[in-house]
Structure formats: structure tokens, C-alpha cells
């Protein structure tokens, strides 16, 4: 799903540079950050930044609450506050550094330069698939630690891995059955 600037309420100089998704924090071309939360039952939603600053979100007729602000930057942690005082991490967060109940963090999706757009994959007949659970594959349970073991998988004949799980979840170890933040690896 994509949105043009008119549909998103953005000025022409605020073109999104990241994801075409209509939710989650987006870094705009002018450096401001756009925040959106779909909360059709909420009359108001407030963005609270890690330093305590608050920014009201404007309600749209289709249930979204949104704002564009220069008070946040890449790396800023934030949370949404509903009218009853409930703090809600961003359900479309790209990063939950303090687990799923903590503050969400703004990530610049354009910060990574893809260099493999011409790669077409391997023939299915050559596939030896390994389901790799990041949290249990190494003692550290991290992507970085798993990278160090990829040569081992190749040496035993593995040609493809399926990372399980990718979405953030409660706790340290995870088997993929109760993902909560599907956009936050």
C-alpha cells in the first residue's frame, strides 16, 4: 500500500524517503519524522518522547492519528499515550530496544544500501533448508553471533536458511508462536 503526500497530509517538501507503508515512524526528506497510529476509537493520541516532550497527534476521518515533528530524530525513543493514560508502544515499531513493553525507537530504513537487487536466488532443486531460531542458535542469541556460524552451515551442506523468528517478542528466547512486533526484527 502506498500513499501520496495529499493522502498522508504531508506538504510537498516532506516526501517520505523510507517505507511505502502508511504506518510506523518515517524519516521525511526535510529531516522531520512522521508518526502515525491507527486508533479509531481514541478521541486523542499524544506522542511522548523519551525526554518527556509531548506532541499531539491529529485525528483523521479514517481512524489514523498523525503528526510530523522536528522534536524527534533517528534514534529517538517514543511511546503513544491514549486518553485514559495508557502508554502504547508503536505497533508498527521497527525497533523495540527494551522489549515489547518499552519505548519504541525511530529507525531510518534508508540507512542501509541494498547491493543485491540483481540476485535471483538459487534453484529450488538445490535447496537444503535450515530453520534457524536466532534466540537459540548461539549462546548470545543475536544476528551478529549467527553470522559467525554461517560457514559451519555451509560446510554441512545448507544452501538456504529461514530465519525464525524475526518479529520482536516478549522475553529473551522465542520459538515463533507469539510474535508481537512483526516489523521489529
Description:
- The chain is of the alpha+beta class and 185 residues long.
- The chain is 10% helix and 24% strand.
- The protein has four helices and ten strands.
- The protein has helices spanning 5-8, 134-137, 143-147, 150-155, and strands at residues 26-27, 33-38, 45-49, 54-59, 64-69, 77-81, 87-88, 104-105, 129-133, 160-164.
- Strands 1, 2, 3, 4, 5, 6, 7 and 8 form an eight-stranded antiparallel β-sheet that branches. The chain has a two-stranded parallel sheet with strand order 9-10.
- It is elongated.
Count of separate DSSP helical elements: 4
Q: Count all strands and give the number.
A: 10
Helix content: 10-25%
* SSE order, one letter for each helix or strand: HEEEEEEEEEHHHE
Largest sheet: 8 strands, antiparallel
Show unreliable segments.
1-8, 10-18
What is the mean predicted local confidence, pLDDT? 82
Structural class: alpha+beta
Question: Based on CA inertia axes, which overall geometry fits?
Answer: elongated
Strand content: 15-25%
Radius of gyration: 19 Å
Instruction: Give the distance, in angstroms, between the N- and C-terminal Cα atoms.
Output: 21 Å
Amino acid at each position: 500500500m502506498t500513499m501520496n503526500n495529499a493522502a498522508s497530509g504531508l506538504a510537498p517538501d516532506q516526501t517520505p524517503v523510507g517505507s511505502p507503508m502508511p504506518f510506523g515512524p518515517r524519516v521525511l526528506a526535510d529531516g522531520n519524522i512522521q508518526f502515525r497510529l491507527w486508533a479509531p476509537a481514541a478521541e486523542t493520541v499524544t506522542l511522548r518522547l523519551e525526554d518527556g516532550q509531548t506532541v499531539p497527534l491529529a485525528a483523521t476521518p479514517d481512524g489514523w492519528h498523525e503528526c510530523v515533528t522536528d522534536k524527534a530524530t533517528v534514534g529517538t525513543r517514543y511511546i503513544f499515550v491514549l486518553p485514559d493514560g495508557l502508554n502504547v508502544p508503536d505497533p508498527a515499531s521497527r525497533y523495540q530496544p527494551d522489549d515489547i513493553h518499552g519505548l519504541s525507537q525511530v529507525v531510518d530504513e534508508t540507512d542501509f544500501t541494498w547491493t543485491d537487487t540483481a540476485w535471483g536466488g538459487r534453484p529450488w532443486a538445490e535447496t537444503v533448508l535450515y530453520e534457524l531460531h536466532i534466540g537459540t542458535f548461539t549462546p548470545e542469541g543475536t544476528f551478529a553471533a549467527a553470522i559467525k556460524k554461517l560457514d559451519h552451515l555451509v560446510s554441512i551442506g545448507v544452501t538456504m536458511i529461514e530465519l525464525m523468528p524475526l518479529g520482536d517478542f516478549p522475553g529473551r528466547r522465542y520459538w515463533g508462536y507469539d510474535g508481537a512486533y512483526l516489523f521489529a526484527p
